[in-house]
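Lecture 7 notes: from sequence to structure.

We start with a single chain of 246 residues. Read the sequence below before looking at the structure.
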Amino acid sequence: MSTKPTPPAPPGDVWFRPAAAGPRNKPRLSREKIVDAAVALLDEAGVQHLSMRNLAERLQAHATSLYWHVATKDDVVDLALDAVFGEVRLPDGHSPAWRDDIAAFMTELRRVLLRHPWAAPLTNSRPLAGPNALACSEFVYASLVTAGFTGPALSAAASVITTHVTGSAAAETVWHHHDETAPRTAVHDHLQRHAGQYPTLARHFPVSGGDWDAHFTRGAHFLLDGLTANLPARDAGQGGPGEGAE
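Now the structure, written as tokens:
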């Protein structure tokens, strides 16, 4: 009688299962060393070049020794991604204006994600349930609760805040991977040749690319204005750098 193969653990499983017992002797490796090496490897070569073998070579260790500390490559990715969130500098407390808190968080998260170009595209592919990511979520949720959001509106507001940052950081990373001018010119020329199909894009596509910082801040301003407009009547939440930043 054949047994069914064990299905692979889903991404994020590392946060929800008991930690495995380590080797009896004091190991040369640790989970912290593995994560540090993984982040460095991902920064240099991207997700496509991350493997347990490559990671072991970087650590000058045998690949099997890694499995005392991490069960799968997905574990490594989840741990490395949470280490990136650990670089986000959260304030010690909340300011009187919730918009100040959210605008500062968005700017800081963007800064960190742009330092690690592989990270932003992964944020929507796995649960962000590590301690550092949860600390960021706690900060955002607490700010929004103070503003007056509750229930489904609270989770939706938190989601669009994070999505704006991760989406814009991922897009900026892609455009900056190579010289931005050449692909933008190619898209512009293509739209001009097919202006009958895409008349609005042909007229308004930003061939120059513009200023990514201003583009991000403008989007954050629109987002914060939209959240403010949907606050309960008791608190309009006006103020903060998101209101006039450009």
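The CA atoms of residues 48 and 241 lie 38 Å apart. Keep this in mind for problem set 3.
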